[in-house]
Specification:
The structure holds two protein chains of two kinds.
Chain A (H helix, E strand, L loop, with lengths): L4 E10 L3 H10 L6 E4 L20 H12 L3 E4 L3 E7 L2 E5 L4 E11 L3 E3 L12 E2 L1 H9 L8 E6 L3 H11 L3 E7 L3 H10 L4 H10 L4 E2 L2 E7 L6 E6 L2 E6 L2 E5 L2 E3 L2 H6 L3 E3 L5 E3 L12 E3 L9 H15 L3 H4 L3 H17 L15 E3 L4 E2 H4 L5 H8 L11 H9 L15 H7 L10
Parallel strand pairs in A: 1-2, 1-6, 2-3, 6-19, 8-15, 9-10, 9-15, 10-11
Antiparallel strand pairs in A: 4-5, 5-6, 7-16, 12-13, 13-14, 17-18, 20-21
Helix pairs in contact in A: 1-2, 1-8, 3-4, 5-10, 8-10
Chain B lengths: L4 E6 L2 E6 L4 H8 L6 E2 L5 E2 L12 E4 L2 E4 L10 E4 L2
Parallel strand pairs in B: 1-7
Antiparallel strand pairs in B: 1-2, 3-4, 5-6, 5-7
Classes of the chains: A alpha/beta, B mainly beta.
Bound molecules: flavin-adenine dinucleotide and FE2/S2 (inorganic) cluster.
Chain lengths: 431, 83
Amino acid sequence: MTALALEHCDLLIVGAGPAGMAAAVAAAPSGASIAVIEDNPAPGGQIWRDGPGAALPPAARKWRDALERHANIRVCSGTRVVAAPLRNELLLEDAERGWRMQWTKLILCTGARELLLPFPGWTLPGVTGAGGLQALIKAGLPVEGERIVIAGSGPLLLAAAATARAAGAKVVRVAEQASFAAVAGFAASLLRWPRKAAQAVVLADPQYRTSSRVVSAMGATQVESARLLQGDREVAIACDRVACGFGLTPNTQLGRMLGCALTPADAGAQALAVDALQTTSLPGIYAAGECTGFGGSERALAQGTIAGHAAVGNERSAKPHEAERTRWNAFAAQLHRSFALSPDIRRLPRPDTLVCRCEDVPFSALADCSGWTDAKLHRRCGMGACQGRVCGDAAQFLFGWTPPAPRPPLSPARIATLAGLAVPDDDVDRQ
Amino acid sequence: MSTPVLLLHIDGQPVRVKTGSSVAAALRVAGGMGVARSSVTGQPRAPFCGMGVCQECRVLIDGRQRLACQAVCAEGMRVETSE
Ligand SMILES: Cc1cc2nc3c(=O)[nH]c(=O)nc-3n(C[C@H](O)[C@H](O)[C@H](O)COP(=O)(O)OP(=O)(O)OC[C@H]3O[C@@H](n4cnc5c(N)ncnc54)[C@H](O)[C@@H]3O)c2cc1C
Ligand code: FES
C-alpha cells in the first residue's frame, strides 16, 4: 500500500462552472497558486458543456481562454472530492489516482442539480431529467427523429427543448406546471433584464402548455407514451422519450460535509449561507454560484468574481461587482416566484412508484416513516449509490424531510484511495 | 467533411461514435434507449440525470466502474453494462 501524494495550493476552487471560472480569473492576478477541480471532463459547468452535440457560445470560450492564460491556475478535470480528512485538506480522486490537496483558502462553486421527482414510469429507459437530456445531447446522445415530451417547471424546459430540436428531435409537448398568468408575468418582468428577454424570444415554443404536468410515462421496456394533465384534462401522447425537471436545487453536499451553515432556498431546499463577501460560516471558506441558491449564470459570474477577489484579500476589487450581483439576485427572486411548484406536484407518485431508484423503494413504503433517518434505516431509502442525491431531494419536497449532513465518502470512491489515507506520510512505498 | 469517429466495444459489440461522445451516448448508439445496468429488482435502467448525480449510468469501463455520462469514449475502450 502506497501513501497518497500530498499537494498544496493557496486557493482551491471546487467546480468549474461560471462561478468557479470567474473566481479563478478574479484571483489570478494576485499570483496565488490556484487549483480548480471539476468532476466533468471539461470546465464550463452545467450551462457551458462541451461535446460533439454542443456549440460553445463565445462567452464560454472567453472564460475558458482566460483560465488557460494564467499560468498560476491549474484545472483538474474529471476529478471529484471524496472526503475532507483534515482541516484545510481534501481527498481527491480522478480516473487514475487518488491524492490529497492542502489549501489555504477554499471556494465552493458546486452549482445546482436538477430537482427530479418520482412519477409512475420514471425509471423506464427513455426518461431523463430536462436539463439532463440537454446535458446528454451535448455529450453526443443521438436523438434525431425521436419524439420527446418535456415536462416540469422553469425556463430550463425551453432550453432543453431548443437543444433537442437543434439535434433533430421532434419536441411534441413542453408541459409547464406554472399557470399562464405566472409565466406571462415572468415574461413581462424580463424587460428589466433585456438580455434574458432576447433569450426567451428565441426559445418561444409552439408546443408549450402552462398548468400542465406529467401523470405517467408508459412502455414495456422503454418509453412508448406519456400521460399529461393539461388543466383538468388528461391527454396521452405517443413519444420515445420523456424529460422531466422541476427546477434546480443547490448542490450543498460538500459544504454540508465541511460544516458550512445553511439558509432556506427555493422549494423547501437549502443553500449555503454566505455574507457580502461570499464568505461561508467557516473562516477561509467561500461559496459562489448556485450552491448559494439558484439564479442563472450571470449571478454565478458576479458572485464568483466577488469570492475570487475576497479570497486573495483584495476586497476593494470585489466591491464594484456588488451592484451586478444585486441585479441578478432580483432576477433569481422573480424566477422563484413565477415558477413556484404547485402543491399538486406532491401528488405525482402512486403507491407503487419507486422513490429511491438505487434501492427500488416504493412510495408506499415511505408514507408511514417518521423522517429521513427512519426511511433510511428501515426502508433503505437513500442507501444506494446516489447516496440520497435524487431521493433525498424528492423526499425533502414530498415529505419535508431534511437529510442529515453527508458523511464521507462524498461520492463512491475506489478502495485504494480510501485505504491510502490510512498510510502515514513517512511510510511511503511499504509493500 | 465527415465527423471523426472512433471505435469502442460495448458488451463485446463494436460501436462507432463521434469523437468526444460520452459513454452514455455510445450506449444509445449501441441500441435501445441506452440501458446501462439492472436495478436491484432486475429492471433495466438507462442514464437519467445526465450530470453525475443519479448513478443510474454506471458501467465497467476497461474494468473500472465509472459513470457513463461523465466518461468520454476513447478508441478501443471496452465497456460492460452492469448488474
Ligand atoms: C442540467 C442543467 C442544465 C442547465 N442548463 C442551462 C442552460 O442551458 N442555460 C442556462 O442559462 N442555465 C442552465 N442551467 C443553470 C445553470 O446551472 C447556471 O446558470 C450556471 O451554470 C450556474 O453556474 P455555477 O457555476 O453556479 O454552477 P454549475 O454550472 O452547476 O457548475 C458547478 C460545477 O461544479 C462541479 N462540481 C460539483 N460538485 C463537485 C465536486 N464535489 N467535485 C468536483 N466538481 C464538482 C460540477 O460538475 C459543475 O460543473 C442548467 C442547470 C442544470 C442543473
Ligand atoms: S446519468 Fe445520472 S449519473 Fe450518469
